[in-house]
Amino acid sequence: MLEQLDTLEQEALAALAQANDPGALAAWKQTYLGRSASLSTFLGDLGKLPAAERPLAGKRGNEVKRTLEAAYAAGEERINAAVLNHALQSEALDVTLPGRPLRRGRLHPSTLILRRIYAIWAEMGFQIYRSPNVELDDYNFTLLNIPPHHPARDMWDTFYTTEEGVLLRTHTSPGQIHAMREFAPAPLRVILPGMCFRYEQITARSEIQFHQVEGLAVGPGITFANLKATLADFARRMFGEGARTQFRADHFPFTEPSMEVDVECFVCGGKGCPVCKFSGWLEILGSGMVHPTVLRNGGYDPKVFSGFAFGMGPERIAMLRHGIEDIRYFWGNDLRFLEQF
Ligand code: DAH
Q1: What φ, ψ does residue 280 adopt, rounded to 5°?
Q2: Stated pTM of the model
């Protein structure tokens, strides 16, 4: 019987030496130390032995049990170390490897040109004034001296909503009324950037949505000369020191007198090319002296105050600067276009 215990001990130790992973170790424990292991049965049945044999059998049985328990603990340590070692080797990180490149986002070309325009006007003392995309007919037209049923409304193909008198603004000019009503009777100098919407046929030169940057200065004694100097200064800052400008008489209901401003074609230097349609000049904005009716609607007394206004198309300017031949690229969501900026 004691030999049986010796054999069991040897067999168990030999089997443990073969166990090399946590699963085999658990199985070994079940077999040799578990509730139904032969050693457990042996120890449980000690009482059935003749009294004379009991002390020796019990002593040896418990000895074997302690040996196996100690061997198990050592085996557990050995296997845990092996598992850890394996993980350290197979999952090793080479921290010296170059990282995965991050895909860089970038700003939309409209955002880029808008920021450039804001910076220039900020240098000249104009603050940004935000006004809504969804407007009342009054602000978009009537208060800008374009009464209902006046043919001047035909200059803008308008998106009307199902709500009476509510529309998507066709230009940023309605912001002039909002700004004046907030500032009056104090002088103001603001730019009004934002998206405009027109129910137009979409072509390479016109979209149903585009940005405008409106400008407005109101104060006592502001003159047409101030307007010309300010716009010429803007053109130099935007297009370079040598940029020449040309002013052409035009008509807008909200300004009197009104004019359009051209900048000398920087592609051909004024000699004439396809970009400027061989005129040597590129149109960049409309402007004029704020009409007395508009000043009055904004809360200023036209006998005391005067002002100038202008409206430019940033996408147009970006197209000119970068030689972009189709305005539809701006909202076409084509990465091949967007990634060039
Ligand atoms: N609102 C005009 C348009 O969208 C542009 C414009 C012209 C704005 C003259 C002005 C201005 O402020 O003075 O066609």
Answers
A1: 85, -5
A2: 0.72
